[in-house]
Amino acid sequence: MRPVVAIVGRPNVGKSTLFNRLTRSRAALVADVPGVTRDRQYGDGLLGDRPYLVVDTGGLAADFAGQPAAGATLSQQVMQQTRQALTEADAVVFVVDGREGPNALDQDIAQSLRRLGKPVTVAVNKVEGMERAVAAAEFHAFGLGEPYPISAAHGQGIDELMEHVLAPLPRAAAEQPAHADVARIAVIGRPNVGKSTLVNALLGEERVVVSEQPGTTRDSIQLPLERAGKPYVLIDTAGVRRRTRVHEAVEKFSVIKTLQAVDEANVVILVVDAKAGVADQDADLGGYAVEHGRSLVIAVNKWDILDKSERAWAQRELERKLPFLEFAPVHYVSALTGAGLGGLFPSVDRAFSSARRELPTPRLTRVLQQATAATPPPIVRGRRIRLKLAHQGGKNPPLVVIHGNQTKSLPAAYRRYLENSFRRAFQLVGTPVRIECREGTNPYGESRPARRRHKRKRPTRR
Fold first, then answer.
1. Is 266 a domain residue?
2. pTM of this prediction?
3. What is the biggest distance separating any 2 CA atoms in the chain, rounded to whole angstroms?
4. Is the pLDDT of residue 61 over 70?
């Protein structure tokens, strides 16, 4: 097993910057604002040939030893996430600000960390341009051993820090990269529709912070899990509002992280609030996922609080505002009670499998011929569009390449008809199907060189 290293400290000392440096990524959202990180974030670190797991956490308060009461506030839930990270950790990196020097909150945190009974290393951050020994000197008073001056932003002193942290921990062999058959599932939606509650319900634990306050989740959190013996990676994302309502820089970066999570996912679960109905932003998010070729499953949340008439209205709204997502399976669920969640993963599996399906050329061509025979293509400028054969041009999502004459004039409505024909024939569930049309060169077109005209020679008069 890889050793687990937790990064802790008070707000805004550079914990997430250090996390990104250790994982060689931009997985953690970084901003010059206290309290950006709320959930614990895991990443893969490597020092030479030594792999380890690193955990980013939210900023600590003075007393983080107690357990949160029922109905804990947002800050108490963030504290609980940090406590859980410390429980799981084999070693702790306590990050402090070398420019500000130690303060009373640092002293209180150090005192609590000494009681953990785990190796703790003090990382004195932001010492770029300073005398390193002088910057670290004041932190000897914590009684946690030799402080290590670093600059997480510039990468200074990082290797020395991690060599010290990992020295007493067991060595783990380098792991194989994740298998390509593992589905990556991004959970997206507007703020406060219940994404984090749904993620916790699917995981079976309070893994991410949940609050009635919109915008609680700010980062994209990757969560490995196993269900029915199959591995998955679940990605909880920040809620996305309309662009005109996004003003804070942190929220703008959160939106970017959400859209990146969609790009990196195989399957997207679009969470819709059944009580509030389908908003334009829901359609925009669904359209973004389809545009980027992602398989889609729709989870209509808070279904348990609707009466019969409200449910009928919600279903009509879904059909009216999301007709372009008719290929996506719809589940009416309650993330709070767990009702209806059992069918989500089977739909995710079918969508993941459908996006990677092999489509044989003979059968594709046969389906094309049957579709055109049932509903012939329209006539354009007095000539009928002729579609001759089809073959697969790509997967994830399936790409069908159709060859014929005048295919550039094929209307969008007929393309959708062909997409649905291929989807029904191959039982493709939850995945968009893309159509690419190609046409052969017209031998009578103006682009070909003009044919030579052979004139008969007239007899010469003598």
1. yes
2. 0.68
3. 125
4. no
Co-location of 431 and 332 in the same domain: no
Q: Which two tokens stand for residue 218?
A: 């700010």
In the chain, % of residues over pLDDT 90: 41
DSSP 32: S
Decide: residue 189, CB within 10 A, 0-12 exposed, 13-18 middle, 19+ buried: buried
CA distance 194 to 179: 30
SS3 content of the chain, % helix, strand, coil (to 5): 35, 20, 45
Mean pLDDT, the chain, whole residue set? 82
pLDDT in tens, 144-166: 999 999 999 999 999 999 999 99
Residue 16, in any domain of the structure: yes
The three-state secondary structure class of 350 is: helix
391 and 344 housed in the same domain: no
Tell me the residue range of the domain where 335 lies.
183-355
pLDDT at residue 25, as a whole number: 78
Residues 260 and 241 both lie in one domain: yes
Mind listing the pLDDT tens digit for each residue in 330-375?
999 999 899 999 999 999 999 999 999 999 999 999 999 999 999 9
Instruction: Decide which of 108, 131, 166 is a domain's last residue.
Output: 166
Q: Do both 188 and 160 map to the same domain?
A: no
Cα angle, residue 226 at apex, residues 48 and 328 outer, rounded to 5°: 115
Is residue 351 domain-shared with residue 380, that is, in the same domain? no
Report yes or no on 223 lying in a domain: yes
pLDDT for residue 461: 56
Same domain, yes or no, for 320 and 398?
no
Please indicate, yes or no, whether residues 269 and 158 belong to a single structural domain of this protein: no
Cα 262 to Cα 285: distance, rounded to the nearest angstrom? 10
Q: How far is CA 360 from CA 37, 261, 338, 365, 390, in A?
A: 48, 31, 40, 9, 10
